[in-house]
Each structure stands twice: as C-alpha cells, then as structure tokens.
Amino acid sequence: MEIDYQKMDAMQHNVNAESTTMVDSHEKRILVIDDDDVIRESIKRLLKTQPYLITEAESSEQAKTIIENNTFDCILLDYRLDDMDGIELMPAIQASNDRPCPVIMITAYSEERLIVEALRNGFYDYINKSHLDAKVLLSVINASFRWTELQVKLQEAQQKLETLSMYDSLTGLPNRNLFFDRLAQAKLNATRSHKPFALLMLDLNLFKQVNDTHGHAVGDHLLKDVAGRLKKIARKSDTYARLGGDEFAVILHDIQTETDITQVVDKIVKQINIPFSIEGHTLHIGVAIGGALFKEGMNESLLLEQADASMYKAKKANRAYELFTDNDVINTQPKLEIGSYIASGIQRNEFYLNFQPQVDLVTGECCGLEVLSRWHSHSLGIVSPDDFIRASERSNVIWKLSYHIFEMAFKQMRAWAAQGLHYPMSINLSAKLLEDEYLLDNIHGYLRRYEIDPQQLTFEITETALMDNVVAANEKLDIIAGMGIKISIDDFGTGYTSFKYLREYASHEIKVDKVFVINLPSNARDASIVQSFISLATGFKTQLIAEGVESAEILMQLKAMGCMRAQGYWIARPMLAENIPLWVKDWDIAEKLSLPH
Ligand code: C2E
Ligand code: CA
Ligand code: CA
C-alpha cells in the first residue's frame, strides 16, 4: 500500500526548513598540521575554491601554540611529524576546543593497524597522501562538519535530558531522582557534622476528589499552585521535591529542636489552607504532614518509612502534622496485600493477555504487538497491571508471574505462526527477572519449544529498573541481544540520565514514555523533548517508538518530527488475541487519517 502523506510531508518540510536555517554559517576554520611544505601547499590549492580560513603549522610545537589560542572547525593532521607522532597531539587538541573538533589524519601509510589505532585515539577519519584530490578531501571535510553538528545536537540533548531527569516537568520542583540524591547527601553531611536534619512527607487532602470532579487539567493546575506556594516559603538550603501524584517531600537542614520543624510545618499548613482559585473554582484543600528526625546510623529508607508512617497517622487522626516518636510503629501490612493473592491467581488461571498494535510511520503498516497482561482476580476484582506488577516485584513471585506470562505469549505466537501470521512481539521484561540465574536457560527453552524466531522478539525493559542493576543487567542483556532478541528501553525519559543507558546497554529501540507524547500538540516543552529524543535515536542509530498516541494530530506531529514508530489508543487499544488478525487486515492508516490513497 502506497500512502500519500501530503499533509505530513508539508509539515516535515517545515521542520527541515527550520533546522537548516539554524545551521551555523560562519566561515569554517581549518588547521593543517604537516611538516611537508609540498603537502600543505597542495591541500591549500585543492581547497582554494572553498570559503575556508586555512591556518598552517609545520611542527607540533607551532601547532600547540596555535591550538591553545584558536578554535577550529576541523584539523588535518599529519600522522608522522618530524618532532613527534600526530597522535601525541590529540590530548592538546581535545583539551583546547569547547566544541567537538574533528581531526582528520593525513598519512602516507595505508597500513590497517595504524588506521585502526588512529581511529581509536579519537581521529575522525583519514586521508591517504597518495590519493589527495579535491573530491576526496572535500567529501571527508564536509562529512566531518556534519559530524560536529550531530555531536553538538547530542550534547544539547544530553543536557536537556539531565535537567529533565532531575526536575519535575509540571511543577519545576526537584523530582524523585534528585530528591533521593539530596537525601543521601543530607545523611552524609549530618553524619559528618553531627547536625541532624528532618524529613517531611506531605500529602494533599482531597486532591483525588478535585481531580475526579474538575478533571486533570484543574488537578495539574492545583499541583502547580501548591508548588508555587511551597517555593515561596522554602529556605535556600532546604529541598522541596515532588515525589509523584500529590505527594511532596521536604528535607530540612540544621535542625536543633522539634520547634525548628514545627515552625516550618506551621508555615506550610498556613499556605496550603488558603483556598486556591483555579479556573473559576475556589478549592479548599488541606495537607497531612509526617515528620521524622534523622538519627546517626539510620539509613534513608527507615527515615522515609518513619515520615510516611507519621503522615498516615496524621491523615487518620484528621490532623495536619505528626512527628515520628520512639513509641510509633511502622505498619507495612497493607502494602503486601495484593502480592499474597498473585500466586493463587496464577494457579486459578486468572491472568490473561492483551495485545496492542505498533505501527511503522514510514510504511503505515503494523510492525509489532506489545503484550500487556491483565488480571481479573476472583477475590480482588480487576487489578491494574501497574499495581500487580509492582506488588509482585516486591517478592520473587514476579519470576513465577513473568514466566507464566511468557508461556502464554509464546503459545499465542506459535498458534498464529501455524496460521501463517508472523507478528513481531514486544514483551515487557521486569528488571527483577535479570536477577534469576535461570533466566537465560529459560529463554533458550522457550525459543526452542515454541519454535520462536528470536528476530521477531523484543524485550521491553524500563530504564528506571535498569538503574538498580547495572552490572549484572548489562551482562545478561548483552547475552539476550546476542541470541538475536531486540532490547527496547521502555518509559524512556522518565529515568535518570537516559543517555548513559543508551551508551551502556545493547539497546535496539527506545520507547518514548507517554507522558511526553499525550500533550504533544499543546506543549512546546514536550515537543522539544521528543525532538531531542529523536535526534538521540538517530545519532545512536537506534529505533524509536512513541507510545501514548491518542489522536491523529499527535501522530501527524510525530511523523513530521521524524519519529519512526507509534503506539497508542488512537491507533488501537490493547485487545484480546482473537481480535488481532482482523484488526491487522482492516488497518489502513491513510483511510483513518482521511488522506487520499
Ligand atoms: P507500559 O509498558 O508503559 O505499557 C504501556 C501502557 O500504556 C499500557 O498500560 C497501555 O495500555 C497504555 N497505553 C497504550 N496506549 C495508550 C494511549 O494512547 N494513552 C494512554 N493514556 N495509555 C496508553 P497497561 O496495560 O495498564 O500497563 C501498565 C504497565 O504495566 C505497563 O506499562 C508495564 O510497565 C506493566 N505491565 C503490563 N503488562 C506487563 C507484563 O506482562 N510484564 C511486566 N513486567 N510488566 C507489565
Ligand atoms: Ca512496555
Ligand atoms: Ca512505557
């Protein structure tokens, strides 16, 4: 099927036009370092027609002085100089430029070993002296300029990601990641200086009701205003963070007495008790605050549990504030509830699968299915996968549950294959499973038993989960990738320095989290984030898929931005296996977008 993406291509064109005007058009500066006058002269002659500013150096000493005082867009460097090897100049070059500067080696040798060594030492490319002509020279130099642009884009994307990974995008407050960093720091400082600090956990009252009655937009606005008021009272040295939902946390430094804490608590309560005026609604909400004081020798999670317990105590007693005392106990009972039902749920066959199509935005065709598990529990009713996966991950029951899900998915794949239907399948892999020593054997077993082509298989793994597991996870993922199975980094952008994981793991795909996609058309910030993910993926030659495509508008915008694949409710909701073949047969993206064929 040929698709006419007229409208999309027009948008694509706009994006391209914009990006070319952004390219730096200043005169390019090139440094030629060679002790042979003849070579320098011939390079200058070959580049004569180009708008380049050429500087020459005939020895490494001279080159060093020039490099220290100037910046260049490209350096042509002789492999063997009279006074030293060209390679030895690399550290000086790399240290002097604040933006990446490609170095092209000029060599009389075409020995492979030398070339490999040079490339390993950071040379961008090489040119053989005996093949020096204008065409070769220009194509290598121009390619090196494009390389620089890509490097700069990657650096920008990385910076953006780093900010993104530390601050909550809605309120601008530090997020969970930064909060846990600061908490660890506070613990170290307190231990060193013997000055205790306090932790407050805040939970808004009636937030859920506001969300349910007035909608998410009002809820979001409220959270922003709450954060605004907290910022007003915050001391510079303290950390006010949003941990998620309507949950905030505060780290208070240099606490001498309990009164120091209550003074801050009073200010917070007073601020939150003032009614909020949002989109014509006057909203009275309150807050429940739990406090805990750090004592030497305590670990962070105990402190968090104590503050959490006091917060629940305050909530239950309908009070604004409780401080954890030695008489309080931490009750973890309710959290374990779901987990204890999962094993029997597996036995009773209460789990089943849904499949959600993924489409290729270039061909328009279905290019895979994500396997999503569902649980209709006999005792608890319908439980959301977010809840039962998280509950099962707290114990090893996640292993049993995951293998049960794999078994169902592979059986289905086999059944479809028998009907001649070969859908690539993406299965979510809990990072906890990477701790199971039998994981690799089990995967081998499935591939063999169900005659699965590993090329048709992707494991989606969340980057936040990878963070806890670095070394072991890395090795196992490499082996899985070695079997021919693809690895996708799920919920991309929500974790900590995603960029790092891209470099460290054998990933074939990044899956942009739906939080960046759902508001794409109305949120310029999200659009710029998604655009930088797309640049990253292109730079790393990695496949990219966006989830959370809830409208045609989002899909068109993604396509215009160069996004390769998409998944979301507008394309298809997750559905039972029996509905998939008909959906795939009927799926026609052009028709759905009302575009001419
Ligand atoms: P996920 O891996 O990020 O899966 C995508 C979730 O987004 C699914 O929710 C899907 O139904 C939902 N979704 C798809 N398109 C849209 C859209 O356009 N808009 C919105 N708002 N949502 C969309 P679901 O099925 O509730 O799954 C939630 C999470 O539970 C999954 O997030 C995944 O982390 C986990 N999960 C589900 N099944 C499994 C499983 O078999 N194994 C493991 N380890 N985790 C699973
Ligand atoms: Ca997923
Ligand atoms: Ca996801």
Can you lay out the helices and strands and say which pair or pack?
Layout: H1 6-22, E1 28-33, H2 37-46, E2 52-57, H3 60-69, E3 74-78, H4 90-96, E4 103-107, H5 112-120, E5 125-128, H6 134-164, H7 176-193, E6 198-204, H8 207-214, H9 216-233, E7 239-244, E8 247-252, H10 258-273, E9 276-278, E10 281-283, E11 287-293, H11 300-316, E12 321-323, H12 337-347, E13 351-360, E14 366-377, E15 381-383, H13 385-393, H14 397-418, E16 425-428, H15 439-449, E17 457-462, H16 463-467, H17 470-482, E18 486-492, H18 498-504, E19 509-512, H19 514-517, H20 524-539, E20 543-547, H21 552-561, E21 565-567, H22 580-586, H23 589-592
Parallel strand pairs: 1-2, 1-3, 3-4, 4-5, 11-12, 14-16, 16-17, 17-18, 18-19, 19-20, 20-21
Antiparallel strand pairs: 6-8, 6-11, 7-8, 9-10, 13-14, 13-21, 14-15
Helix pairs in contact: 1-21, 6-20, 8-9, 9-10, 12-13, 12-14, 13-14
The structure holds ligand C2E and calcium ion (2 copies).
Residues 490-491, 511, 513, 547 line the site of one calcium ion.
